[in-house]
Predict the 3D structure of the following.
Amino acid sequence: MKNDIHPKYYPNCQVTCVCGNKFTTGSTEPEIKVELCSACHPFYTGKQKLVDTARRVEKFTAKVKAQSAKAATNKGKKAKKVKREAKRSQKEVVVKTKDIKKIAQVKLNKK
């Protein structure tokens, strides 16, 4: 091995878990603190345990509820378009006699 390029190796690294379990291993760190270990992890213990430190599950369910409530009140593009078309069809169209004469002349000239 080359000198001064590798990190220092600690053969007696102390690993401490949140549950209180401690064990020794080798690492480049002198001390390691972890949230889960083999003594408290659901895979090794067989017990189902929800580990949610940042309230992610509650935040997600609240976000989904808010979106579904908003979607119930919102209308889609098609519904809005149909409403606009209905409004336009109810308007009265006023055509002046001069305009009718111009339209008739244009149609005659095109033939």
Q: What stands out?
A: The mean pLDDT is 81.
